[in-house]
Amino acid sequence: MPEPAAWRYDKITKPMFDVPAGHVTLTGRVLTMTGDVFADGFVTVEDGKIIALGSRSEIQAGSSHVEETSGTIMPGLINSHAHLNWDGIHDLARQSMDDPRPISAFKAAGNMLKSLRAGVTMVRDLGFHDMNLYSKQAVEQGIFPGPRLKVCGAAIIQTGGHTYWVCREASGADEMRRAVREQVKGGADLIKIMACHDTLEFTDDELAAVIDEAHRNGLPITAHATYDACIERVVRFGVDCVEHGGSMSQKTIALLVEKKIPIVTTFAPIVQQSQPDIARKFGIPEWKIEERKKAIANPARYEGLVNAARAGVSIVFGT
């Protein structure tokens, strides 16, 4: 295992926020997500752990306080692709270049609260500079309440590559390894690379180095990859996961199946920003709206994902 991040050596006397951990029985429609559905059921929680569930008729009288939810009780949701430091309203590039770091931290705090209120109890944050490292520290040290976080630190790109304004730029194999080690030192749970936009990014030596260095440090590595040539390339080179996905040949899909590589889909931004009435309310520039409309009009991206799912590729939820 890598050396722990410096903040893990801190001695925490007491968290700033205590998570309530009483003994309570919640009633309502219970979805176990293992096949069982209790139309009129219960879940009993004690000290933050589920100790019993079943039909309401099985509740032991007087065993705990009973709270009627009049709703549905289910396991917490996982958002496997998020960027908590973006506010979901304003231009991504301008936020990335202009927001002072304290403002970025407040935006992450707000999004963590929104996530919890929506029933999302784990978030995989895939980068906004290295700010997600501090979000993780804040949650784990009890400084701020939030979902459990899996973070990549700063996503790694070739110098001047796709979204260079929010990532860790690097050139050459040695610099790729240095970039990975910086994220590891900061406490990253995984490494993310931006493998393409209009063109493929990274030389073969750079791509091999960044993947090898992640694995040498015991971390999985995921790649932003949105079309067939890019997806095939990163999977062949050894990434552990694909972000977004897109058009894919049967050969690429077979490679994903063979290597058991999942795809984390992210439909929300592209669909919403392709609708002019919605996009303009949030200041999305006209060129971006047209770009999104063209993407939506092209069925290949979605057909590729549907074909991959039918072939047995795991499709993971992300926003």
Structure notes:
With 319 residues, the protein is of the alpha/beta class. The chain has 2 domains: 1-74, Roll (Urease, subunit C, domain 1); 77-317, TIM Barrel. Helix content is 36%, strand content 24%. The strands form 4 sheets. Strands 10-11-12-13-14 form a 5-stranded parallel β-sheet. A hairpin with a 2-residue loop joins strand 2 and strand 3 (49-55). The two termini are 30 Å apart. 37% of the residues are buried.
List keywords for this structure.
alpha/beta; TIM Barrel; five-stranded parallel β-sheet; 14 strands; Urease, subunit C, domain 1; 2 domains; 319 residues
User: Approximately what portion of the residues adopt beta-strand conformation?
Assistant: 15-25%
Instruction: Look at the structure and give the CATH class of the largest domain.
Output: Alpha Beta
Unreliable stretches (pLDDT < 50, length at least 5) are none
Shape: globular
Could you name the CATH topology of the largest domain?
Answer: TIM Barrel
* Computed Rg: 22 Å
Structural class: alpha/beta
Report the CATH architecture of the largest domain: Alpha-Beta Barrel
N/C terminus separation: 30 Å
The count of strands amounts to 14
Strand order of the largest sheet: 10-11-12-13-14
Helical run tally = 11
Q: CATH homologous superfamily of the largest domain - what is it? A: Metal-dependent hydrolases
